[in-house]
Amino acid sequence: xxxxxxxxxxxxxxxxxxxxxxxxxxxxxxxxxxxxxxxxxxxxxxxxxxxxxxxxxxxxxxxxxxxxxxxxxxxxxxxxxxxxxxxxxxxxxxxxxxxxxxxxxxxxxxxxxxxxxxxxxxxxxxxxxxxxxxxxxxxxxxxxxxxxxxxxxxxxxxxxxxxxxxxxxxxxxxxxxxxxxxxxxxxxxxxxxxxxxxxxxxxxxxxxxxxxxxxxxxxxxxxxxxxxxxxxxxxxxxxxxxxxxxxxxxxxxxxxxxxxxxxxxxxxxxxxxxxxxxxxxxxxxxxxxxxxxxxxxxxxxxxxxxxxxxxxxxxxxxxxxxxxxxxxxxxxxxxxxxxxxxxxxxxxxxxxxxxxxxxxxxxxxxxxxxxxxxxxxxxxxxxxxxxxxxxxxxxxxxxxxxxxxxxxxxxxxxxxxxxxxxxxxxxxxxxxxxxxxxxxxxxxxxxxxxxxxxxxxxxxxxxxxxxxxxxxxxxxxxxxxxxxxxxxxxxxxxxxxxxxxxxxxxxxxxxxxxxxxxxxxxxxxxxxxxxxxxxxxxxxxxxxxxxxxxxxxxxxxxxxxxxxxxxxxxxxxxxxxxxxxxxxxxxxxxxxxxxxxxxxxxxxxxxxxxxxxxxxxxxxxxxxxxxxxxxxxxx
Length: 635
Hints:
about 625 residues; alpha/beta; Quinone Oxidoreductase, Chain A, domain 1; Rossmann fold; six-stranded antiparallel beta sheet; 20 helices
C-alpha cells in the first residue's frame, strides 16, 4: 500500500511511545489519524500535533484530520465505539496499528495477587486487546471490500525469553503467533503483520536495567521502528510477516526460511499427489507421433548440434511410467554443455550416446499412465527435470514426476534455476541471517531467486548485472546494492564499499569474475560455484581455467569454495519446489520471465542463443504448445 495523503489510520496506544511516533509519522504523510489511548491529556496533544503535520497536505477539509478517542482496550465496548467513530469520521479504515501495551507491574516471583491488577491485566491489554482490535479492523475492511493493512506491536521478547518479565514475554509471543497465523487474509486484500523491536527509549523501555540494554546494543532508534512499520505497510508481499528490529542486526524478518523449514510439516509426495493436486478436465488426444529436439553431433554450438525429429508415440505406456504432454520448457546456459557431451560419464565414448534428447526441464499435463502407477492421474499438472524437455511429449518413470498446481512458465523458472538457488544457498552456502551475500549475473534465471531468498533470510544483498533494465529488475527485487558492470567497475565498487568482503558469494560467471569473487570473500566466507557461463562458448568450447594460488588463499582466511551440481540433490527437489511455490503463491517471491516470446520447438535454438547473448532479463522459456497454453490460461 502506498503511503499517500487521504488514507486513514487508527492507532491504539497512540498517545505515547511508539504509538505516538507512528501517529506523527503517518500525519507527516498526509494520512488522517485516530489516536486511541487511555490517557486523555496526552492523546489530545498528539492529535493536535498530527493535525499540524497534516496541514501541509490538507486545507478546508470540513472535518478534523486527526481525532482522539479515549479507550480502554480491555473493554470491548470502548473498542467498538472507537472503530465506529473512526469509520464515521473518515468513511473507512486503511491502516490499523495496535500499539497499546503495558509491562507487568509486579515481578512474577513476588506476585501474590489473583492477577486482577498485575499479570492478568498485562495479558488483557497486550494480547486480548490486540486480538479484539485486529478482529474489529478485519471486519471493517471486509465490509468495505477495500485493501487494508494491520500492524500489531509485538516485541523481541516475544521471539526469545525475557526472564525479567515472563508474563510480558508470553503476551508478546502470543501476539507474534496470532498475527503470523492471519497470513491467509491476504487473499481478501487484508495484510496483517507484526513488528518486534528490541528495547526502544520509551517510558516502558526506560524501566529496563541499563546494563542489560547496553549488552543488547543500546536502545533501538525510533526512526528504525517507523521505517520498519512503513516497510510492512508498503510492501505488498508482506502478510503474516514478523519484522525483528535490533541495533545488532538491523531490520530482519523472523524466522528465516531456513529456520521455518525446520518446523514446517511437509506433506509426503503421495499425499500431495492424491489430495492437493487437482487433475484438469482437458481434452487430451494422443497422436501417433510427436516432435522432439535431439543432439545429433557433439558441439557447443547448440544450433548445429541439434535438429528436430519425428518420433512414434509408443503405446501402451510402460509399467511405472508416465507420458507427459509438455507445454513449457526451460532454457539453460548449460544446454550448450549438454550438446557438447560434457554431462556423460562412464566407460562408453560420448559419441556412442548419439543421438540423445535435448532439454533439462519442462512442465505440462500427464497424458497417460502405465500399469502400477496409482498415485498419478491423467490431467495432473506436473514438472520434470530429466533429459528430453525439448519435446511435445516425454515418457518418464513416475518417480521423476513433480506434481504442481499449474503448468505455468513461473513453475519452469522454479525448476533448475529456482532449485539451484534454494538448495545451494542452504546446503553449500549454509545461509543464515545477518550476512553479506554477493550474487553474480543476478538478473538471470537463477540469480533472481538467489537475491530474493537471501533477502527473505534477512541478509544484505549485493548483485551484479549488465544493463539498465536488469539493474531495475534487481532493485525491484529488493537488492541493497546493484552493480551495473556496463556503468561501473565491479572491482572498484567492492573495494570501496565492501572492504570487509562477503560471507556468501553465489557465482555463475567464471573466468575473471571468479577471481574477483575469490578476492572479495570474507574470513570464513563460502563461495558457491554453480556454473561458469563466460567459459561455455567460444571457438574451442569450454576450456578449464587454472586458478594459481587458490589453496593458499582459502587456507589463509578459512574460506570455502564449494561446487554445486543440482543433479546430486534430487532427494531435495520436491521439498524445495514446494517451498518456492509457497513463497510465490503468498506473494513473498517474485518471478521474472523474459518477455521475448519463443513459440514451438523450431524456436529452441533461437532461445538458447538469445540466453547466451546476454540480453535476457529473467528466465527464458519456450512455449512448446502455444494452443494448449492458451487453453490453460482460460482456466
